[in-house]
Design a protein that fits this description.
Strand content: 35-45%
Radius of gyration: 22 Å
Distance between the termini: 54 Å
Largest sheet: 7 strands, antiparallel
Number of helices: 5
Low-confidence stretches: 1-27
Helix content: 10-25%
Order of helices and strands: HEEEEEEHEHHEEEEHEEEEE
Amino acid sequence: MRTLKLIALLAVAATFTLGLIAGTAHDKARAGTYLGPDTKLGNGVVRAWVQLDRKGNPKSVGVTLTEEALTGLPAAHGDHGPEYVLPLPAEAAQTPFDHVGFHWNPQGHEPPEIYGLPHFDVHFYMIPVEEKLAISPEDPAFKEKAAREADPAFLPEGYVSTVEPVPQMGVHWIDPTSPEFNGKAFTKTFIYGYYDAKLIFVEPMMTKAFLESKPKFSEALKLPAAYARPGFYPTRYSIRHDAANKEYRITLEGFKKR
């Protein structure tokens, strides 16, 4: 009888140990960087990606462009430069982001005295492309929706509204303490976008010249006190040059569950 009990206990222990091993292997299998498709940009390529930890939670989300992408860029395209829609991989589902709108502005944009330099706008959108396209002056309620402000708890600390809505973007909220609003030339900045009282994108912006300086930049974000939709949100952003791989990375990182 004792022998049978011992065998049963050993079997349970073995099953438990195998379960732990299998669980650990499964967790490790989730960890890694998952890439979206390459999109041609200039003489190079650009892509979006997500990095997950062992539990499948996001560590960072970003965009990578090769060094060659800064050459052969298209010239002016109407009032603004072209937008490249960068799909995120399916593994980014644990983030609030749906896709990335990567804008090249060869002549800069409004206000020209601040943002009139050739630069990139990297919109990490929290809404689908179809919903983004519907943000249009053709919508009779466009200005009404743009004028609706989110609950103050959902607005980033210290940011102010630029008021004028932009098609496909809504209203930009900027940090008035940023260098470009305090007598210094624009190099990089971070913007929040709202429409119809909800946060729809976050946006690192940087000049082409800043990327060409091969930066190693990282900064904590000024964050809202809360988010309307619970989930994982970034707390930092970075713009870095990777000499070994000859590429630039624009990254949202330090994800925390909010």
